[in-house]
Amino acid sequence: MKVMAFGAHPDDIEILCAGTLAKYSSAGHDVAIVLMTNGEVGSSTLGKKEIAAIRRGEAEKSAEIIQAEFFWLGYPDEFLFNTPELRLRVIDTIRRFSPDVIITHDKDADYHPDHTTTGQVIWDTHVMVTVSNIETETAPCEKIPTLFFMDTVAGVNFQPECYVDITQQWEMKAAMLSCHKSQDEWLNDQYGVTCVEFAQTQARFRGFQTGTRYAECFRTPKFFPGSVNPNSLLPGLI
Ligand SMILES: [Zn+2]
Fold it and tell me: Domain tally for the chain?
């Protein structure tokens, strides 16, 4: 199986679904991570170009831990808009990997504009990737990928429909989070926690909800005729 995760910013994937990606990767599936924006506002001391370059390096290092293919789209942080250009870029990016499963932000439950735009653009394009009259550099996908929306940061406003037990993958997720050293500084300034502590609280709470040590949670958007393959998420969900 091929699993592609779209995050708005460098570190979103690690906080919200890295344990699940690690689980897929450990089970022999192919994983890709796509980052929509360059994270250029994620510092109170460094300039935009400098912090964007640092965050790209951190995200690449993190992706290497689970041997994920890495796509950096580089749109401006906090100014991501659902334009024809962005849709075509996303369609072509999906076609390049041709995933069975896409995981991304929840267009309805999330509250950050870059997250909701990312979720909306994936929602708007995930069927179009198969349409031959929508032309991009890469040939159309043969089938519509199954789409899952991931948890929101701190779980705010998110109603889980399924959980993935990531207890065995927690250390790998923590290692991926630890790659984002620049954000430890930022999160400490803003909220007094490290990246790992921040995500650990959430994974522990989602695990508590479902009777495991650590978990991540998801929901599936509904549409006709639907494309949700119930076997798309790994065993161990409740
Ligand atoms: Zn984000």
Answer: 1
